[in-house]
From TrEMBL:
<keyword id="KW-0472">Membrane</keyword>
<feature type="domain" description="Prepilin type IV endopeptidase peptidase">
    <location>
        <begin position="10"/>
        <end position="111"/>
    </location>
</feature>
<dbReference type="InterPro" id="IPR050882">
    <property type="entry name" value="Prepilin_peptidase/N-MTase"/>
</dbReference>
<feature type="transmembrane region" description="Helical">
    <location>
        <begin position="28"/>
        <end position="46"/>
    </location>
</feature>
<keyword id="KW-0812">Transmembrane</keyword>
<dbReference type="Pfam" id="PF01478">
    <property type="entry name" value="Peptidase_A24"/>
</dbReference>
<keyword id="KW-1133">Transmembrane helix</keyword>
<feature type="transmembrane region" description="Helical">
    <location>
        <begin position="150"/>
        <end position="166"/>
    </location>
</feature>
<dbReference type="InterPro" id="IPR000045">
    <property type="entry name" value="Prepilin_IV_endopep_pep"/>
</dbReference>
<feature type="transmembrane region" description="Helical">
    <location>
        <begin position="93"/>
        <end position="116"/>
    </location>
</feature>
<feature type="transmembrane region" description="Helical">
    <location>
        <begin position="53"/>
        <end position="73"/>
    </location>
</feature>
<comment type="similarity">
    <text>Belongs to the peptidase A24 family.</text>
</comment>
<protein>
    <submittedName>
        <fullName>Prepilin peptidase</fullName>
    </submittedName>
</protein>
């Protein structure tokens, strides 16, 4: 087995554990993310030598910076940003960007499904339509589903796997 296969297995394991943990405890442990980043660094160096370090660093930076604005504007938790940085460490800069975009699509779909399940999609759309017209923030109602924490690690998991599945079709 070569190092790229170890990378796929390690990334799958770390992202899957993060998704399960996020669903169960509404948090992604730092030790899991930082262990995953360290493992991706070691696998990159073993596979590509010193030349792999820049690709690893760029991947981490792209993964982090793609999700950081969502954290900055309180639309995402810090654990999700760090998890995407870890994904970038395995996938490199282009792979991190693809996985992040696919995770955002997956998150939008999963979030919409939650709103539909709770019967609050119309309320959500109405609130955002009013905010758009008024150009001001409208606080959600106390029982609003959009106040609930969303385990976004699940969307990152889906986006990461989708980016792997996307590769054969993108060429």
């Amino acid at each position: 087995m070569s190092y790229p296969y170890f990378s796929i297995i390690a990334l799958s394991l770390f992202v899957s554990l993060a998704a399960v943990w996020d669903c169960a405890f509404k948090k992604i442990p730092n030790i899991l993310v930082f262990t995953g980043i360290l493992a991706s660094f070691l696998l990159y160096v073993l596979d590509k030598g010193a030349s792999g370090v820049s690709n690893f660093l760029l991947g981490v930076l792209v993964g982090f910076s793609t999700f950081f604005p969502f954290y900055f504007f309180k639309g995402m938790a810090a654990g999700d940003v760090k998890l995407m940085a870890m994904v970038g460490g395995y996938l490199g800069p282009l792979g991190a960007f693809e996985a992040a975009l696919l995770a955002l699509v997956a998150g939008s779909i999963l979030g919409s499904l939650i709103l539909i399940h709770k019967g609050q999609l119309a309320r959500f759309v109405k609130r955002y339509w009013m905010m758009l017209g008024l150009r001001t923030y409208i606080e959600p109602e106390p029982d609003d589903a959009s106040r609930q924490r969303f385990p976004f690690a699940v969307a990152i998991l889906v986006g990461t796997f989708a980016s792997y599945l996307w590769k054969p079709f993108a060429q």
